[in-house]
């Protein structure tokens, strides 16, 4: 398949449905002006956290054997995320390229620039390139890399680099992690797979319910992006560019150094590293009184620019062709 044909397929099969869902979320409050946007986002996020996301994680983990190739994905994506976090820290805190920024804004940009939306945007991309079974790469990456790092290093960045609440008692990372239903669903599914206790009808039911996870989250993403305030500030665009291009480049460069054979799993790690900023960064910014507007802007711009950078990455051959 040549590049032009694959690019057209990517636009029709992946970018079009993603764009329609995000657009629907953006336009919803305009057509239904009585909508309480914050209340609606809260309700939908709870639906995802307590039902949809646990169901899809259980379905995937209960039917996916654990292999070294599978585990290489969170290792590589984590390496890219941590390296980019270090780059952003140097740019924002050491070099102080934008001296007018306060520490709350700097911390928000580091958080949003490090962590990508590797499940909700990553899964459609992975399925396009590698088939439905590639969903397992995103699921294991979220559970073994993104969530542990977000709720440990992410909290540290928020409280130590954000310049506020440094003397306040900080939440227990373990307690926070163990209070999340997706973690328990993932652990339960993994245990059932390892011990041969997978019950196919239950898996099918969980998969059916969990299929709504990605559409709901993308709809909420459309409601979250501050469309009327998307001013192209230089620090936002720089962080977005680093997130979208430097992170996958780092993964692409590191993979052959760690693995003799670079195959589907390693190319999947590049695809996940290329995803735009995740919404959890804004939640952390809000929770720890950082600059949540800067996080929202970075989420918005990285999501928009993703429509350009993913075809570029595909053209460079970093992901690989079907």
Please tell me about this protein's structure.
The chain is an all-alpha fold and 322 residues long. The chain has one domain (3-316): Na+/H+ antiporter like fold (Up-down Bundle), CATH 1.20.1530. 74% of the residues lie in helices and 0% in strands.
Unreliable sequence segments = none
CATH T-level fold name: Na+/H+ antiporter like fold
CATH class: Mainly Alpha
Distance between the termini: 8 Å
Supply Rg. Answer: 19 Å
The multimeric state of the shown protein is single chain
Order of helices and strands: HHHHHHHHHHHHHHH
Helix-strand category: mainly alpha
Number of helix segments? 15
Shape: globular
Layout of helices and strands:
Layout: H1 3-31, H2 37-61, H3 68-94, H4 103-114, H5 122-130, H6 135-150, H7 153-161, H8 173-178, H9 181-194, H10 200-210, H11 213-224, H12 234-258, H13 264-273, H14 280-287, H15 292-316
Helix pairs in contact: 1-11, 1-15, 2-9, 2-10, 2-11, 3-4, 3-6, 3-12, 3-13, 4-7, 4-12, 4-14, 4-15, 5-13, 12-13, 12-15, 14-15
Quick rundown:
The protein is built from 15 helices and no strands. It is an all-alpha fold and 322 residues long. The chain has a single domain, classed as Up-down Bundle (Na+/H+ antiporter like fold), CATH 1.20.1530.
